[in-house]
Amino acid sequence: MRGLYFEEFEVGRVYRHPFTRTVTESDNVLFTSLTMNTQPLHLDHEFAKGTIHGRPLFNSLFTLALVGGFHVLELTFGTTLGNLGYDKVEFPHPVFHGDTLRGETTILDKRESRSRTDSGIVWFEHRGYNQDDTLVMRCTRVGLMARSPEHGGSNPRVLGDDTPVATAPVTSEEQRA
């Protein structure tokens, strides 16, 4: 089982990832503490009562990491050579304890690497939605992706299985829903 090779990415294709995850107070406290983010808005219920949200707000970097992880098994598992950057990271709606998140990815662009013959560059837009289908996170990411062995790639196969995991693309009707 593997993600997609550079050649398999189609510009404009949308993937609605099959994973969902309900985020918990423990997730927020652990992530916030591990990353040394002492913002009381994430950790202190009494402090948070006095804010515009009235309750603790989920750490946005956890949201970015979680939504950014939803695509891995389906699109980049074993075929990514590294992240080249993140751009336009936005959090248009807050996430709270108990929200259930899901993700979608659109392939924005791609090109062959100018310095490496075994890889190409792919631009992704990752979006996270809560249980009400409200957009809670959006970012653009640039990844260095392995080319297939037939196209000069040398990335080893994952677990000896060269079957891509990617699901069917979202149809135009599904995008409007």
TrEMBL record:
Domain MaoC-like per the UniProt entry, residue ranges: 11-117
Location of the region described as Disordered in the Swiss-Prot/TrEMBL record: 147-177
InterPro entries, per the entry: HotDog_dom_sf, MaoC-like_dom, MCH/BMMD
SUPFAM superfamilies documented for this protein: Thioesterase/thiol ester dehydrase-isomerase
Pfam families with a match to the protein in the record: MaoC_dehydratas
Similarity remark: Belongs to the enoyl-CoA hydratase/isomerase family.
Protein name in the entry: MaoC family dehydratase
